[in-house]
Design a protein that fits this description.
about 450 residues; single chain; FAD/NAD(P)-binding domain; 12 helices; six-stranded mixed β-sheet; six-stranded antiparallel β-sheet; alpha+beta; Elongation Factor Tu (Ef-tu), domain 3
Length: about 450
Amino acid sequence: MSNTPKIKVIGAGLAGCEAAYAAARLGVDVELYEMKPHKHSPAHHTDGFAELVCSNSLRSNDTSNAVGLLKAELSALGSLVMEAAYATEVPAGSALAVNREEFSDYITKKIRNHPRITVIEGEVTEIPEGIAVIASGPLTSEALAECISAYTGGGELHFFDAAAPIVDFSTIDTSVAFFASRWGKGNPEDYLNCPMTKEQYDVFYNELINAKAAPLKAFDRELQEDLTVFEGCMPVEVMASRGYDTLRFGPMKPVGLPDPRTGEDAFATVQLRRENKEGTMYNIVGFQTHLTFGEQRRVFGLIPGLENAEFFRYGVMHRNTYLNSPGFLSPTYSVKDEGRLFFAGQMTGVEGYVESASSGFVAGVNAAMMALGREAVVFPRESEIGALAHYVSEGGVSSSFQPMNANFGIIAPFDKKVKGGKKARNEAYALRSLEMIKNYNPFKEN
């Protein structure tokens, strides 16, 4: 047993459990460190592993939906989280929802009963030696967070997430929205512009300042104080509440962006900036927000050109410890300058339960491969699991890295346009991915 390759995994959340189980299945001994039950984060209340905090839903099961495809990929690869989810499923229409307690119990028993996994209870306050996966979550304890920050050289660890919504370019009405950069500077295709008349602005403004905000969790309340300092991260609805013209002199400034239909600047203009080099994703500039997702869809749908826009990601503002991963992590979730250390879960910049499990799977598999002296497994961009890993490693075209959930905007596009519309395109993506992913199953010979 002493000669068996060994790795360490920090954190028994979704990512940590997935990493530990995948590595153990590959024949590696795993020490899994978990601070519960001796210490709990502000969000966690039970002593079980893989505790679902915000929701019992793992979202859509439809593979023409990106997270549905990601779940199908993970299931095909032997994911513990997906195995547990389907074993504890509760009725939820086309979505996959679970009984939270049964889900956690299922994973906890699988982990504790695995002969190659040793659970060590207690807080980890330093980066461990040897091959290790750090999956301590968005609420990483202060001591370990400080250690990670020092390890990255400072400035590489963010403590809250203030992200603007990202929309699907194919759903934007380009008969209204037009390509142009302010004053004609730079590449005009980098920006889409949605011009507003005074009447349209009045309706939008009144709905925005009266829209419903998402409730803050207890551990997010300190964010309210932070936001009084970080003006650049102010929610768009808070900015609007400061005065009728505040947005028109800020993110909705129309000057230098004449509407091609009139040849003149509009009363207000919403800009969208290209989010990826393929131009499939655009983020709404300056629209970081704390509105509920439903209110974002309703209110931002009042913007001319975005009436039927579909969101790849809604705006979010909450406490979220995450790395500035592009250039720091590789597509295996290992640190580029020190391959023996891996990160997994939301702290890498993936957003969501299934996405966290996905990163844990990739990190756990590759930590085990390193311990075994085998070649790394780099999942292809044509798969959702690979697209997420590459996005985390490389980021988008903008300089500001923000967490991302599964979506078709980050997946490798086809060389030619798929006929039949968006659903047909997404179904084609899914077929391609699920056929390709068979060649990347690390357990085929185990």
